[in-house]
């Protein structure tokens, strides 16, 4: 075949691939490769085979072409084939035995420099090393070697910040604690024009900060826009980006502003009904708000569209949980975990469904699994602590909750629980401190969610005989929730202790009134 | 040609006037329409853009409505082509009425508020009483006023007071569903007063509207129509008046004879009227042209969806309904039709969602009750469904579809007397409800009273001649045991086939009946058609086998062996006795095909007894032997 003929065929193969006509691509690629036996053409043929889902054949082709070990790209493609074939050990062997240290720095002197086969020049290329690292991470994850997986994911992000998949794995599967996340982000090296990416990444990581990162960033962008014209317009476009908005919604969820969160996600889902992350937040918010009807429709649609995804089963579980059919909820949560064991919410949900029915052992089992699988997810550890607390095992409870605090030091819930433990252990001074820290950490304006904390604080203050302070705390709690029985009781008792019998009687009466009311309702 | 601004000023003032006269639902309607007008793209240009530029492309802001337009028809053609089709289909007669191209709308002057009435303070008080539903007090306060507005409100208040009393009496005497003789005691005196006012020419359009209602209640329908037409001609923005007129237009003749001024509100009226008269295509056309101006009107959208539902375009209707619900999530009006649609499609999850939602929105509305009843019906809880239908009817005794659907529920529960009663109420309210007639027919058929059933089926199919299900029911009635009037059955089945009956029952029955009656040629024709249809829809089943078997035998008898062989080979694909029959038939065909042999040679062939042949022959049944005989004889 003549050279121009070959060149024409190459173009044809590329076109077939872009049009997803894989069989034609394979057919012509084979002809080209046979004509030239150029490594680049063999690579193209293997690529076509891979895309045509003929992994074994692609692997065989690469192996038999004998250059596979010389070039990193060949090895990567071969490893990709092995990944699809789920032969993880082989895959790792194929990728070579590079080492990674605990900060995710790769040291591999042997790696030969890749020969750039089809360099397009113009396009930004993802560093092949990053791709290799990511694949290693995936293989280790599949082999349940989470420590190695985590390191390799970190290595992938470090070698190329554009390797979003690795970051996504790290964040979504809770592989890092808050601290590690921020240190990873700060260690990433961005070129100046890519500043927007760093902004987005910082929005993506967990949202326990006091300030709303996303909104702050967006505000910054808007403010900075007139002066720095180089990169900002792009960022401005991203203002309505679904990912960012989902992050924003998640933030609101974390601070307990469920209505706002629900509004956000509903809006987003009308625009992009299949945005999975947003769907997840939407589910969680709907559950907190008790919108069981929305949950029902969403779950029905999800299971219709994606019966293979864990989130669909999780959604059904949420629906049953919200209508208090915990048996059914458990069944569906565990179905979700069996579909995808690396789906954190399902484990937590399953644990919660057990915990509601006071089946501590089962609940602990679920939480422990979650804690093991997702070391960055402080909720699992926290819930273990809470379970211990229910079984009056306060020492252990405290240990676990402290561990949770180490993972995520900015979640106010952790401090509240610590306070409760201290209260139970009769360390009232400590309890007061913890409760006060809770209130400091509450990000947004106070809402009903934090009423128990205030009541707890007041109880502790009462125990310390700081009656006036206690009264003011109780009153603050009553501002947040006018029907708080324990606040009324506490208030009455405090006045009682202060020998202010008139006030005590008034509040005792109020409490009785509400008890009766709830009795009749 | 009216620009959007004109529409807007008209509607704005109309809504105010209607609200001032306590015609709340009409005011609501006008206000909704007012909001549905999109702001002009450039407020500076007062002239309305020409027709072509109204297409959604030129309006960036109109993208939502254009989506809503193209989506429902998206399956077949994109929106613009539809619009074109409708335009061209609308022909010259129609274009004069389209608002966009419309040249010939009459502009009706907005009646001037007679603000000079010195008694406006008293009017204010009366209106406040009225709004608190203290009708008699309101009427009393206005007793001495003579202004038109005051007279209207006084009469209206009296009318409503009478109605309220009537309702109470109904319940006191007969229970909530009784048929009683209770009448509105105010009607006579009100009629006298209003008629004298009308003669004196001292009555405005609102008074005429009230007079029309009273006449209708008194049973003078022709005069009521005249009066209502007068009313809408002088004040066209009162949708309630149009609705009353609509309920009086029971046939196309009456509709065509109406002497209406060509105001744009007439188009809204016509769209609804066509809907009532089951002329759904015309409705769609009207809505299409109206939507060019009132882009975001939920009313028009709902009309479109209802028309599509009436045309049994369920998927497209569903898309439109979803859109409506997205824009107006707490809407109840016409949502009962959506629930019917979901019921027909058996969309369980969507219906459940809707039912739960309306339950929280307002569970004591007839529409909500109807939706919830549909939900229970789909769940198979017919008692609960009936309970909710009854509640819907308690809230609105003239709620047509609830009566019909309740009848269906009673049929499911095998409670025929109750079902008949419910259906009869439905046809009393609206004799054009073919579903109720059909239900009556079905119920009588269940009670094995076929002549009754036939009568009602005939009424139903007269109203809805394009619905194949009705013809099928009728045909089955003719065909079944006591009647066995097969010729009539054939006629009905033919009608059903002409209506594009989709399930293939009619074709099959036609073929079968013809073959039973011995018209094998016609039977073959219908079997062939049935077969083609089943092939097209990739259906299998006993009907297929029957058709193939008949065709083979028939064609063989006709000596069209090659064709027969084609059908026979297809029969071989089936397992069971059919296969063996087919094999023997095929063998017979082969023999027959190889030239009609003399019987002796055949005998010899048999004697030579190829083992293969013997095996086959052993399998043949007696019937097949007979067939063999036929072949040999032929």
UniProtKB/TrEMBL annotation, chain A:
The keyword Heme does not apply. It comes from the Eukaryota. TPR repeats lie at residues 310-343. GO terms for cellular component: anaphase-promoting complex; cytoplasm. Pfam families: ANAPC3, TPR_16, TPR_8. Keywords: Cell cycle, Cell division, Mitosis, Repeat, TPR repeat, Ubl conjugation pathway. This is Anaphase-promoting complex subunit 6. GO terms for biological process: anaphase-promoting complex-dependent catabolic process; cell division; positive regulation of mitotic metaphase/anaphase transition; protein ubiquitination. InterPro entries: TPR-like_helical_dom_sf, TPR_rpt. It comes from Dendrobium chrysotoxum. The lineage of its organism: Eukaryota, Viridiplantae, Streptophyta, Embryophyta, Tracheophyta.
From TrEMBL, chain B:
Pfam families: ANAPC8, TPR_11, TPR_8. It comes from the Eukaryota. Coiled coil: none annotated. Residues 38-70 have a biased composition (Low complexity). Keywords: Cell cycle, Cell division, Mitosis, Repeat, TPR repeat, Ubl conjugation pathway. Signal peptide: none annotated. One of its GO terms (cellular component) is anaphase-promoting complex. Residues 7-305 form the Cdc23 domain. The keyword Cell membrane does not apply. PROSITE patterns: TPR (PS50005). One of its GO terms (biological process) is positive regulation of mitotic metaphase/anaphase transition. InterPro entries: APC8 (IPR007192), TPR-like_helical_dom_sf (IPR011990), TPR_rpt (IPR019734). Residues 38-111 are annotated as: Disordered. The keyword Cell cycle applies. TPR repeats lie at residues 366-399, 400-433, 434-467. SUPFAM superfamilies: TPR-like (SSF48452). SMART domains: TPR. This is Cdc23 domain-containing protein. The lineage of its organism: Eukaryota, Viridiplantae, Streptophyta, Embryophyta, Tracheophyta.
